[in-house]
Specification:
mainly alpha, globular
Length: about 70
């Protein structure tokens, strides 16, 4: 993957993070709020697109997993 894919995934996960952030803020739920902030910030620190996608998928699954198992 090249830099264009990395930029595409960064924008995609940032937009999803904004959605999580707004949902967490409106519903007063701290986990989606924190995941939203994390999804907006973490792409700046990832070394490559593969790691970017893996971490993004894990972060997006956290609220679902937490609500299902805890």
């Amino acid at each position: 993957m090249d830099k264009g894919n990395s930029l595409l995934f960064s924008v995609l996960f940032g937009a999803i993070g904004a959605g999580y952030f707004l949902y967490g803020k409106k519903q007063a739920k701290p986990l989606p709020l924190a995941v939203g902030i994390g999804l907006c910030i973490y792409p700046y620190f990832m070394p490559g697109p593969t790691v970017l996608v893996i971490v993004g998928i894990v972060l997006m699954a956290l609220p679902w997993l937490a609500s299902r198992y805890f």
